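Notebook entry, structure prediction.
Reason for the run: the old model in the group folder had no record of what sequence produced it. Starting over properly, with the input documented here first.
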Amino acid sequence: MQWLPYSYVRLLAALVLGILWQYFFPTPQNIFIVWVIVASFIYGLSPWYVPSHKRHQAQLWLGLLGLSVFMGVGAVRCYQTVARNHPSHFVHQPTDSLRAYVVRITDEVQAKSSYWQTIAEVRALRYPDGWHRCHGKILLRIAYTDSLPEPSSAPLVGDELIIKGIYSPIDEAKNPHSFDYQAYLWHKGIYCQQYVQPQHIGIIARQTLPWWQQASLQIRHYCQIQLHTYLPEAEALGIASALVLGVKTNLDTETSQTYAQAGLMHILAVSGLHLGLVAGLVSLMLKPLRRWRYGVWVYSLLVIMVLWGYAFLTGASASVLRAATMFSLILLGQALTRQTNIYNIIAASAFILLLYNPMLLFSLGFQLSYLAVIGIIYLYPKIYGIFSIPNPYLDKAWQLSAVSISAQLATFPLGLYYFHQFPNYFLLSNLMVLPVVPFILGGGILLLLLSPFPYLAVWLGWLLSQTIVWMGILVRWLTSLPYASTQGIYLNGWELCFLYGMLLGVLLLLAQRRFVYVWLCVGMVTAWSSSRIYYQYQLRSQRLMTVYYLPKNPHLQLLQGQKAQVLLPNKLSAVQSADYQFALGGHHTALGLQVCHFERQKIRPGSLAFELVFWQGQRIALVSGAVSPAFWELCGEAGVSVFILQNNAVRSLKPLADKLPRQAQYVVDASNYTKTTQKLKQDAAELGLQWHDVRSQGAWLWRF
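New structure, fully documented this time:
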């Protein structure tokens, strides 16, 4: 492959390398700023100090020097994007004497089970000596005044509020392999949160936003109201809101999981597919403009304006920004009558977005979006060319199948890494459902346009609702088929790299047919297989005792091989809880758990206050109620090695100082109150006991 035509690909690679360096190896930005200036100066003066007859020999080194400039730019932009690196950020200010602070709501306000949730920009902090200006984002959860509040009572985007109280840092993930909400928010520049009672909030000003942002929010709000009005079915409303407006608050968890298992989650997130349909519709409507003298420019600018307007209306996700940037570059290239290289356009769009916000590189939507489009552009012609089908209808079906296979090949390793499942019938589901999506998207947009005419809107809303409901029935039927999806697939980071290495090696081998790529494929397969063999060996030999972070749910998990025994006080409520599966599902997948046997603890209110468990030669005491001081002495004589304190059974350790076994491990699970945990932690530190607080330190694991 000749790299000369792919200039933006090289620049993007250098920029990404700089971002990754700064992210994993934080370095003062001044070092990179100096390097960018010096390297740019050396590169710029090269025509004067490099003789003309030696420029060809120096081309490689000058090229690397130029790329190092963009690597430095990537590192500097990454440093500048991390909000806490700025001295004026509010996280650098003390909170011990903080009385109040002023924020402006900058994100959509979402209704949760018992509170409003939104993101706000901190503008000033109130201390005894006055106000101090600052900046930074904060996650706010505002408790409802009533149990079922009216939507009109919600705070609005742009409202300026004064809040009394002290914010706290975002907690890290408490259970291994669970969703890291802290990292997710950190990438968005959010490091603190506060749960606020209504009486601690005062409104200073209403909707203090620029006119264009205010207009965008009003249009978005109007569109949501119209969908609520004309789509009576809850399922239809949720899917239409997600597909047309990018609003997922009306989408229930069961529907999301069903579409994910069918390999159709991409249609519920506004992405390049949806933006492409909008672009095609607008292009068709404005096509006559291209006949004018300057019509190409007018046509291109209007399409770009509509695309970016729709992108911001739907929330400007990473995949939408990618598609909007790519379409804009293609249209500008056509207006300038310049021949464009599609890979340069892809790289240029990624370069622009990462230059603006380097944290997009770590967004799953950004990664999947670019991998899918690269896979489609490169693999689709090759896969489609395998068969030549004369029947036009079957040929259209094969085209859609080739697109689905291309996107799946490019993204399935990342899907396995993040979601631990593979939709076995992805080809069938995409072939049956994707043709319906343009009609739903077009129908949703037409419904919004016809909303001033209620009679027409009611009939169109009914037709759209029925279409979505029947599509949901079809998706649920697909997921009910035997072996609809393969669950519980675990990949570590290295195995993800090996899989992509195998894929790259096969593609290079087919394209260039050089023997060196055979060795690349063999090396990647060997590395991946070795990693999987070692992983399976670990699974069969593992022995692990775990107390997870599960508020209000005392428990103990004992794992041997790939079989676990879980002791719970109330088996049904904990096991059937979606929160339980969300909290532990990732770790259970990583452990290769095949059998999980749940048992009720023998502890019952009014009867036994403790239970002794014998496992792997160890004695574990579950203490869930009041016990006599003699209990601790007897446990010490019996050789109990672990005490798990539950349900505020022990509120102070000092009265038991001479009774407690000093060599034992004490674990306080998340069923205890925060105040009780803090008191016990203080006592344990004074007594020199081995202590683990699950509420603050996360899950406790003991490997044998």
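Summary: The CA atoms of residues 175 and 542 lie 18 Å apart.
The old model has been moved to the deprecated folder.
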